[in-house]
């Protein structure tokens, strides 16, 4: 359904002074079929992900993969250096085979696992959120890092009118129109559902 | 919203709003520094410089400049290393272990405790770098391909485990700390007016925006990092204790060392956090956030860890007697009655007796008593490491090698220098960085704020 025509989208900022009315407003917006583009807040809001449809982050899975990479690298390194390349007899405790020395290798295997998991995950987090030195501030309103909670919407004209009503009815302090932009015809089909 | 029992004391005093929390955290950054801050900074910077001088001298002439001799070849060096790294552990414990246990009171102290961790580990790193004697060859500690027929470090040795443990601990702590700092830098960036501050905090905040997606990742990353840091912090001090425990020196060769060292580390770390917090609280007027209740909670941790340390001391004595090994028995007899017995008894008094005073509610809720006792505990924990290392090395197996130890002024200079460095870094941190994790604090305002709790209670009664 829907024909490929260019659409005008209006940017709307619904500003709240607390998380509770914002959550309520978000539920109502979603119930009336309005897609919430993003929510900005000074602190994490518990339970918001389900309400606005943010999928659960997979960053912990990444951490696990980085962790087992660290385990493998440490194992490989210690096997190569201590058993394969230059086996030493240290204090009457020879390095004939890896499994003989496993107890002594546990600490570094563990440290290396933690090292890779922690740094890999941190790096993934920085890149995925594009938190890098010199990046531009991503919040559309500077007050959202202080004490304001903001619902960011990109809507068509009729949706915008409806959204405005819902936001007002649920205690939005301000509703700011931040201009509009045209979505080219080629991109509008996917929005039609 | 999470409701909390009325009986539980509020963690944020006064009638605070989100706005006010931001205002209170940003006040030291935007405002003028107090006179006391400058005085302390000059004092710390001067001792830091003095320490750098002694450090340069040591590198120039070698570690013979210390009071080290044939027996006591570590001088003060490893004592200071273990002391500093132990202090660092409280920061990780507060931010990681207390996060896993969902202790909300950690939120007011975790930021500065983590900063303390990082600065303490840096101080520890100086000693551990230097104790090799030729610090310019320290790259040989790492498994790098080399020209000696590819001679690798010994992975069976606890000294090498220490290299890996301490470097992992230092870098992971820095990353954990910085990830938490980013949202707060974002808040400061959006609030400050001076152009240079705007620029500085823009760069530091990495473009933070606080969107729901970013917060969700932020929370996941914090949780996983806490989960990783918790075993990490236990492993680091266990490995530090292995440096002693896997040797065959009487007095060191004991299996009790890992838990004993870890609880000692937490014990001294909490004491250092208290010393610093009580000063920060006063200078930056953060009494509403760092309440008496926070101090009391920390003092309770001090009782617990201090008692574990006390039990460990007594167990050591018992096992030395029970083992029937006369070298082991002599090691402890020498500690308690030998020429350096005063240090043993100083340790016993400071670490075993003084924390027990916190059983009295009056004492553990008194700021003055807490401040004094926190310093006493730190002195005691320094002596613990001194007692383990120096008297033991003064009296080893061969009586002809027996000797004693006096520190040279270089020993003292480097130690005083690291205290200066620690102080300098901490003062700069407390002036330019958000000392309290304000974003986290805002999440508990409604459940644990004083006014908010009163309102909720009133609401419930009607």
Give a structural overview.
The complex is a heterodimer of chains A (193) and B (462). By secondary structure, chain A is α+β, with helices and mostly antiparallel strands. Chain A has two domains: 7-42 and 147-192, 2-Layer Sandwich (Alpha-Beta Plaits), CATH 3.30.70; 59-128, no CATH class. Chain A has six helices and six strands. In chain A, the strands form two sheets. A four-stranded antiparallel β-sheet of chain A has the order 2-5-1-6. A two-stranded antiparallel sheet of chain A has the order 3-4. Chain A is elongated, with a radius of gyration of 26 Å. Chain A starts with 6 loop residues before the first strand and ends in a 5-residue tail after the last helix. The mean pLDDT of chain A is 87. Chain B has 462 residues and is mainly α. Chain B has one domain: Formate dehydrogenase/DMSO reductase fold, CATH 1.20.1630. Chain B is built from 16 helices and no strands. Chain B has helices spanning 18-30, 35-61, 77-100, 110-130, 158-191, 195-204, 212-245, 257-283, 292-323, 326-337, 341-353, 361-364, 367-394, 409-432, 438-448, 450-461. Chain B is globular. The relative contact order of chain B is 0.18. The model of chain B has no long low-confidence stretch (mean pLDDT 89). The interface between A and B is large, with 64 and 69 residues.
